[in-house]
Structure formats: structure tokens, C-alpha cells
Design a protein that fits this description.
Deoxyribonuclease I, Chain A, six-stranded mixed β-sheet, 8 helices, globular
């Protein structure tokens, strides 16, 4: 089984840039999308319900903002979207598909920077992380769990091109990095870094100006994390930096 996660930075725009071709040629069984930025009825039919795919979307209440979705070759037994708090659910950031005891979740973690770039949303981000953590901890008691998404956090200096100039930037703040380390300490596995422990230059997001992507000046902030039982099944973990259509690129895992 292949699971791929992608922050599409607006699904309608990504469709115009070739998303459906990527979907069909990826050999994936599940696609986890973040930042859809559309209500389902606003999507073209070809994207809302492609032939051979089961789809589920959880948009934000605010138009043109956030939103997550799942494309799956196999129909899930059930879909879960609520974290139980309106301040999280209204932003459309969490969706989980249950396949028997296996759970695959798409999560769009908030930025902490705030509208004024003053890191005012960091407390909200950390609270959201805690709510997701509690939910997926419950899932893993029943079976394997994969959590794909834009985590909006680079954990170690190897995960961004310019760590020294970003120590006060949301996405690389000590408290954000410590939250991710707490997940790892609890047994959640960053399967890509496990496979490529000392390799620099692997990024998943680049600024859309200044030649950042061409020069590979980026951040690795998109992951598929696996619970311990799920991590044992991962045969390969990958990043597809050459797939265009968003300021992020797809990441994924192949599972036995």
C-alpha cells in the first residue's frame, strides 16, 4: 500500500497545474491532502469524485481557507473529522479514515506566526497538537496509525536550509520543536528520517520567490508519522521534490 501526503496550497489551483495526472500516475492507494481551500461543491467534478477513487473532505468554515481531504482506492469503513473543540473543527484541519483497525489521518497543523508575523498563534498551534496527539494515541491502541500532513515544524537543523536565521521564526521555535520531540519520545516514528538519518537537503516546502525551490533553500515540514506497529510495516519513505503544483511537494510511504 502506498500512502502519499501533499499540501496542495489550494486544490482548485493545483488541479489546473496537473494534480489529477499526479493522482493517477502515483500508484498510490491513499492520498492525504491539506490546505484544500475550497468547499467540496466548489471543486470540479473530476476532482471532487474521480473515477476509481473514494473521496472525503473536511473544509474550514471560512471560505478559501485551510481544509483537508482524503482520496482512497478502497472505501473506508468510516471517516472521522471532529477533535471535539469548535476552535479546531471550524478550521478544517483533521480528517481520519478507518480501514478495519488501521487508521490513516490527514492533518494540517496551524502556523504559529499569526497575521502580524508575531508568533501569536503559537499557543493555538500547541493546543491543536495536543488535541491531535490525544486522538491518535487512542487510535494506536487499536491498530496501526499513519498521520500524514503539513506539520508546519522543522524539528532539527538538518530539516531546513538556514536554521541560524530562523531561530525566532514559527516553525522552528524551541517550543514547537519540543512538541514534535515529545511525539517521537512517545513512540511515533518519522519514517523518512529513520531511513535517511544524516542526509541534508531533503525539503518539502520552499518560498515562492527568490529562486528558493530552484536553489533548494527549503524546509522539511511535511511528514508521514507512523505509530510503532505501523512503522514496522513501512518498506520505503520518500519525498517527491520534482512534483510541482504547490509550494509544497508530496511525501509518502510504501507499506507492506
Amino acid at each position: 500500500m502506498r500512502i502519499v501526503s501533499w499540501n496542495v496550497n489550494g486544490l482548485r489551483a493545483c488541479v489546473k497545474k496537473g494534480f489529477l495526472d499526479v493522482l493517477e500516475t502515483s500508484n498510490a492507494d491513499v492520498w492525504l491532502l491539506q490546505e484544500i481551500r475550497a468547499f467540496p461543491e466548489q471543486l470540479p467534478e473530476a476532482a471532487r469524485q474521480p473515477p476509481g477513487w473514494h473521496t472525503a473532505f473536511f473544509p474550514a468554515e471560512r471560505p478559501g481557507y485551510s481544509g483537508v481531504g482524503i482520496y482512497s482506492r478502497k472505501a473506508p469503513d468510516r471517516i472521522e473529522t471532529s477533535l471535539g473543540e469548535a476552535r479546531f473543527d471550524t478550521e478544517g484541519r483533521f480528517i481520519a479514515a478507518h480501514y478495519g483497525r488501521t487508521v490513516v489521518a490527514s492533518v494540517y497543523f496551524p502556523k504559529g506566526s499569526g497575521r502580524e508575523r508575531d508568533n501569536s498563534r503559537v499557543p493555538y498551534k500547541l493546543d491543536f497538537c495536543e488535541a491531535v496527539f490525544e486522538r491518535i494515541e487512542r487510535f494506536r491502541k487499536r491498530g496501526p496509525v499513519f498521520v500524514g500532513g503539513d506539520y508546519n515544524t522543522a524539528v532539527e537543523t538538518i530539516d531546513l536550509a538556514r536554521p541560524k536565521t530562523n531561530t525566532k521564526s514559527s516553525g522552528f521555535l524551541p517550543e514547537e520543536r519540543d512538541e514534535m520531540r515529545r511525539w517521537f519520545a512517545a513512540g511515533w516514528v518519522d519514517v523518512f528520517r529513520r531511513q535517511h538519518p544524516e542526509e541534508p537537503g531533503h525539503y518539502t516546502w520552499w518560498r515562492q520567490f527568490g529562486g528558493a525551490r530552484e536553489n533548494n533553500v527549503g524546509w522539511r515540514i511535511d511528514y508521514v508519522l507512523a505509530s510503532p506497529s505501523a512503522a514496522k510495516r513501512v518498506q520505503d519513505a520518500f519525498i517527491w521534490p520534482d512534483v510541482l503544483g504547490s509550494d509544497h511537494c508530496p511525501v509518502g510511504v510504501d507499506v507492506a
